[in-house]
Known about the structure:
The protein has 322 residues and is an all-alpha fold. It has one domain. It has helices at residues 5-12, 16-47, 49-92, 101-113, 116-136, 153-178, 183-196, 198-233, 239-277, 284-293, 295-313. It is built from 11 helices and no strands. α6 (153-178) crosses α8 and α7 (183-196) packs across α11. The two termini are 28 Å apart. The longest helix is centred in the N-terminal third of the chain and has 44 residues, at 49-92.
Amino acid sequence: MNLQLGRAVNIVFQTTPYLVYRALVYGVICAVLAVALLFLAIVGRIFGSGAAGVLFALLAVAGGFGVQLLREYVLYLLKAGHIALVTEIVTQGHLPAGINQTQWAKERVMHYFKEISVLALIDQLVKGVTQTLNRTLFDVMTFLPIPGLEGAAKIVQRIVDFSLTYIDESIIAYTFKTGNENVFDAAKTAIVLYCQSWKGLLKNAVALTVLSYAFVAVTALIFLIPLGAVALMLPDSWSMAKFLLFVLALFAGFSAKWILFDPIACTATLLTFLSESEALTPDPEWEARIESVSAKFCELKKKAIEKFRGATSSGDAAPKPE
């Protein structure tokens, strides 16, 4: 297993503007959460923990919806722009001289995906396909030969599902690497290539996911120390406020993961995928197997054909051959 974390860290820190953007986005979310939790603590103090608990549940639902909207309209573009920059460094060795990273990455993403809705659609299709593959065609237990693990199969499957985000982002990177403007076709091809080398890629992605849990535990502990000190100074009757400080520390730990660890893990997986797929050509047998188990892959393939026909009928150039 070669996680290439050293090289990944070096590449990610060449794209510091995007790390700053991620920090700003999640920093704002943390600030909003802190204000909301303060409000809940006050409600709990006045009306009791039961009232605060009900309000907490309502705010959690509303917050989940809000984060989903933020993800679809802001974070997709942020993530794709970062992937475009990282892919350029991986394939070319460096970024073009004198560029504004933000503007260059945005133009790169819009050149291929045209609209955020297209990027979001491909992302969702790819997620659906990879999840189906890892639950049907692949036996994930074969590359984790730990005694007694069979009894924890559901836990292992959950870890594998979480690890797929790194695989999905690597598949998006394949578009930027190949220059295939038929983004549906690029994603389809990348999925086939992933299947042809799935074991090594998924093993790395799972290892990185486990490391991410350890990272969250450490960072959450760091935040728990000062917030725990604050909780100790509160009277015992402020139990709801103490609980909310604990929630804030956990969220801060996860935010640190989203800001720093995830870009590094994504880059490490991307390095492995682009390297292992370099010498491969799509296998028609694998494509047929994927089609037989995944409706979303069939949809992706259909959209690739429609895109190709549309480009041909409008006189555009055909997609770059792979």
